[in-house]
Amino acid sequence: MPAPMPDHALRTSETEVDLVDLGLPEPLLRAVLDLGFTRPTPIQSAAIPALLAGRDITGVAQTGTGKTAAFGLPLLAAVDASVGAVQAVVLTPTRELAMQVAEALESFAKHLSGVEVVAVYGGAPFLPQLRALARGAQVVVGTPGRVIDHLDRRTLRLDAVRFMVLDEGDEMLRMGFAEDVDKILSMAPAKRQVALFSATMPPAIVRVATAHLTDPVQIAVTRQASTVTSVRQTYAVVPFRHKIGALARVLATSDADAAIVFTRTRGAAEEVGNAMIARGLSAATISGDVAQKDREKIVERLRGGTLDVLVATDVAASGLDLDRVGLVVNFDVPTEPEAYVHRIGRTGRAGRTGEALTFVTPAEQGRLRAIERTTRQRLEEITVPSPADVSAHKVRALLGKVAERQQADRLDMYRTAVATFLTDTGTDAAELAAVLAALAVGDAGPGAATEEIEQTPLQTARGADRTADGRVTFTADDRPAGRAPRRASGTRYRVAVGHTHGARPEAIVGAITGEGGLTGKDLGKIDIFPSFSLIEISADLSPEAFRRIGSARVAGRPLRITVDTGPRGAGARPGHPSSAHEMSRRPAAHR
Asked: Which of 94, 136, 326, 410 sits at a 20 to 30 Å CA gap from 514?
């Protein structure tokens, strides 16, 4: 263990210390090295040794300085995986930050067998959080209000807690959580370690530190300059339900060699990545739970030009340095401006220019203004390309290849066929060329399903209606551009995700086609029930494809694909997981 830190305040500066010098346990060091970290940030260099030595700390630092790892790694080092009780609690002011911190901690704990992290926050179902706590989760990351709820219901006990973190303390107090924070800290054992992080240290935060911390080491880091001059920064106001279609059109019309799409959570990354694959894009997803060897393969594909779109979380994208990336899309607005700066820094490298586009929902205008203040740059509002813009972009690219193809020759057969068609039908040559161009770029004309699907969420698009028994039916009419009509029959399979998990048809299609080596024409009807879905697949699945599909994740859950042996009619034998049985297990009020 490092020697105890001095009592006086520490103001950090750039150091030449490596992560291997900080005294981290080997499994934690391996996890952060897997994520691409090698050199600690100033806050990590000062905080990690102090916390590993058992000291309390107060850290003045903003998000984006690396403070999650600064407290998360020592926190995990203090957890005993053999004890199935809550040993560490992290309090955050918002549910978004709770999800981000929980995901980061899970990434850091990937080599710690038996350590479970659970996020608890308001606005989410209580039962899954209760089950995770009952299973013996050792780390709780949550908002003060929901933590208090669990304490009041005795579904959370703090008897075994040995490590507590207050993240963004000033923001928690500003939002009115002062009493909740005080109550939670007072209910924890007196012998525990506390880390308090705050962007500022107003009197209220000083009072909390005085009351609940023991002889804390005081650490302060200064905010790094946040100016990005080589990146054109834009934003578009996009309602949440239209984000998937908007992203597909942005990527379809971009001239960038490659793009990185950032999402806030791992589940969102998987869903967005699968949706882009379903639309025919060369895309892949990395998040904190992707194995290092798989991550390296994905990054190598992106670097080598066989992959064009990477969907990632902030933690998973750490350390990426790729010259090909000409576009960064913030699918979700970062919770903090510093995280925004880190994200858009993935483009505009090596003297090149890049573009960063941020999707902003109507309710997120305030976050946009904070980003502009931090970057000292006004973001330019743009309009998301329409389906017509996508077609126009494709036809321009097609026409750009005319001269090269003309020089290659061997066109006599086509000249003869076109001349015969023009003579037999009396069609104008320019009209024929226009029709052929439309067909070549997949434009089926006004009112086509491909046009509608790009502007509406798949679950409310034509052919994707929710039935009286809770199903969401997805047919060939909903398929992305270029997909062939479904075949009439096939083997019916069951996957372990449904609409109560947030599963969407495009995500299921993307996961099955991407992992199984299938095309859209191999998939038939999809019925989405509350807790599972049924999919018709006409192609034969090899054992390897079956395994890959089964381990693919949609809405954060593995598909666990199996052949459905239940009856196709309304009846079902007792105990069989068919659609009728699923309906019978639900309360009548939900039927």
From this structure: 326
DSSP state, 109? T
Q: Are 491 and 563 in contact, with CB atoms under 8 Å apart?
A: yes
Contact 562, 531 (CB under 8 A): no
Are both 394 and 436 inside the same structural domain? yes
Task: Locate 387 and state its tokens.
Answer: 């389906």
Q: Is residue 3 part of a domain?
A: no
Residue 164 and residue 31 share a domain: yes
What is the rounded distance in angstroms from the CA atom of residue 277 to the CA atom of residue 271? 10
pTM listed for this prediction: 0.50
Domain span including residue 367? 231-385
DSSP β-ladder status, 10-11 and 57-60:
unpaired
CB neighbours of 282 closer than 8 A, spacing ≥ 6?
306, 307, 308, 309
User: Is the same domain home to 169 and 254?
Assistant: no
Q: What is the CATH number of the domain that holds 576?
A: 3.30.70
Positive or negative: CA dihedral 258, 303, 69, 102 = positive
591 residues of the chain, pLDDT tens digit each: 333 333 333 333 344 567 788 889 999 998 888 877 778 888 899 999 999 999 999 998 765 678 899 999 999 999 999 999 999 999 998 887 888 899 889 999 999 999 999 999 987 888 889 999 999 999 999 999 999 999 999 999 999 999 999 998 888 887 888 899 999 999 999 999 999 998 888 888 899 999 999 999 999 876 554 446 678 899 999 988 899 999 999 999 998 999 999 998 888 888 899 889 888 888 998 876 677 677 778 888 888 888 999 998 876 665 565 778 899 999 998 877 767 877 887 787 655 678 999 999 887 877 888 888 877 888 999 999 988 888 888 889 889 889 998 898 899 999 999 999 999 999 999 999 888 988 888 777 765 544 434 443 333 332 333 343 434 443 333 333 333 334 435 788 999 988 777 777 877 887 887 777 777 777 888 888 878 888 989 888 888 888 889 888 887 788 999 988 764 433 333 333 333 333 333 333 333
**In this structure, are 195 and 235 located in the same domain?**
no
464 lies in the same domain as 580: yes
Same domain, residue pair 83 and 56: yes
Per the structure block, which two tokens stand in for 240? 């949440």
Domain termination residue (choose one: 220, 246, 281): 220
CATH value at residue 89: 3.40.50.300
Residue type, 396: R
| Residue 5 is assigned to a structural domain of this protein | no
Distance separating alpha carbons of residues 249 and 114, to the nearest angstrom: 42
Nearest partner of 140 among 90, 191, 81, 193, judged by Cα: 90
